[in-house]
Specification:
Layout: H1 2-6, E1 11-15, H2 29-34, E2 37-40, H3 55-59, E3 65-69, H4 74-77, H5 84-87, E4 94-98, H6 108-122, E5 129-133, H7 143-157, E6 163-169, H8 173-176, E7 184-187
Parallel strand pairs: 1-2, 1-3, 4-5, 5-6, 6-7
Length: 210
């Protein structure tokens, strides 16, 4: 969205995530295309791994922006291993998203272990990584949860590597923009499935809502 608003180059978005059936960028393809983003993905059949074409060609094209959404573990990261020589160049940025409320990044040992596995299969250089703090518990995340999660993550990782910025749902931005030791970036949520808006029959919230 922000790259499109620069209006200087076309934006190509590749959904490289082949590890899960939900919360996939391809599910909001129409919304992204309405913003002017060119989407690329392969249709998934059950759990068969699929690889989208055209990545190499566009990574070589300096007249466009290429954004790649990659699965968040070592299985998903295998999808970009073959592109490492291009992704490790100076004209690329690799963001690694951290969320203190997720099991694989709720303490420094899990972060180190997961990141080590990802780097091993993706062949991305450690020095290429830019850390992004995205503390959330789904669509019901509160300002308090953002502040607490942001503080916890900062305390865990900044002794080892800097965090570039934090992300927060745009309707919480004004409440938390001055609460972090790094810049806070407002984001719009697109993947809000209808079933996330309801509760189970016993009143318990659907996972992903908080």
């Amino acid at each position: 969205k922000w790259l499109v608003q620069l209006q200087d180059k076309p934006v190509h978005f590749f959904d490289m995530d082949m590890t899960k059936p939900l919360f996939r960028s391809r599910d909001v393809e129409m919304q992204m295309e309405a913003l002017g983003i060119i989407c690329h993905h392969e249709k998934q059949f059950m759990d068969a791994p699929t690889v989208v074409g055209g990545v190499n060609r566009l990574l070589k094209d300096e007249d466009c922006y290429v954004v790649m959404d990659v699965g968040g573990d070592h299985i998903g990261a295998r999808a970009i291993g073959g592109y490492a020589p291009k992704l490790n160049k100076d004209n690329t940025i690799v963001y690694y998203v951290l969320n203190a409320y997720r099991p694989w990044s709720n303490d420094i040992d899990h972060i180190d272990g997961t990141l080590g596995q990802i780097l091993g299969v993706s062949h991305i250089q450690l020095g290429k990584l830019h850390m992004v703090n995205n503390p959330n518990n789904g669509i019901t995340t509160t300002a308090k949860e953002f502040i607490e999660g942001s503080r916890k993550m900062s305390e865990m990782v900044t002794p080892y590597i800097a965090v570039d910025f934090a992300c927060v749902r745009e309707d919480l931005y004004e409440d938390v923009k001055d609460s972090s030791d790094v810049p806070v970036f407002p984001i719009e949520l697109f993947l809000t499935y209808p079933w996330l808006q309801t509760d189970f029959a016993d009143g318990q919230p659907v996972p992903g809502r908080g």
